[in-house]
Amino acid sequence: MRTVRALSAALLTLGLAAAPAAADASPSPSQDASAAPTRAGTSFRTATEIEQGQQATANGSTGDYLYWSFPADTGQRPTVRATVKLPDSHAAQTWQIDVYDGLRRRQACQYGAQTRTAAADAPSVELACVLRTVRAWSEPWANDPLPGTYYIRLTATGVPTSDLGLPVDTEVRVESRDIGGAAAVDGSLSEPLVPGIATTSEERQEKAAVLAGLEPEDGWASGWWSDRWVWTGVGGVLAALAGVAGYALTRGPGRPSRVPPPSA
Known about the structure:
Elements: H1 2-24, E1 48-49, E2 55-61, E3 66-72, E4 76-85, E5 93-100, E6 106-107, E7 109-111, E8 115-118, E9 124-131, E10 148-157, E11 167-178, H2 201-205, H3 228-251
Parallel strand pairs: 1-3
Antiparallel strand pairs: 2-11, 3-10, 4-9, 4-11, 5-6, 5-8, 5-10, 7-9
Helix pairs in contact: 1-3
């Protein structure tokens, strides 16, 4: 009976430990729509900063390069979505969305319609890019996503001359799933890949040029903690309880009362 009670308590502990991990796997909550940006930058340096969960809008012209930036932290798998509302009359157009990390390395999409062609006079075109999970650390030669600022570039490619300069309305949104300990690695960056992160506090007080001011809601992760520690601890407890239960089953009830103790 004691063994059953101990195992029940361990299973309850396992369920309580798994609850936060399941909650973290949900998409990031939406931000206040009224605070969402209504313009886009024209280069990496002028990219408009957006929070994850915000729906940013911008007016532009066909042929322009539109840039946004957003923060992504360790264990997140960002999904970038863009909608381009086209003018009433236009030729066939191909639109493309690209995502770059803090080192301005183009990041490949795991899946999603990164490039789409809108038929002539189509009202809109929708694009999506699901990135790989952001890692806390990577080899210098690798192209793995690392925590820091990410850049979105939206543009039309191969536009007919007759369509250059036509007005378009764009919508961009970024959301992430928290993958958790499944993507944990041993190691972390000393600082996230954020432009201006190397400036000192005195320089920032003097209004020095800091090119990125956004960070995750809970701050940048240190890289050493993940829910993998929770599962490791719970596994150790269950292994210890299994050992106790196995010993209790193999030991038996002990010496029967009718059997006299061995003589000295």
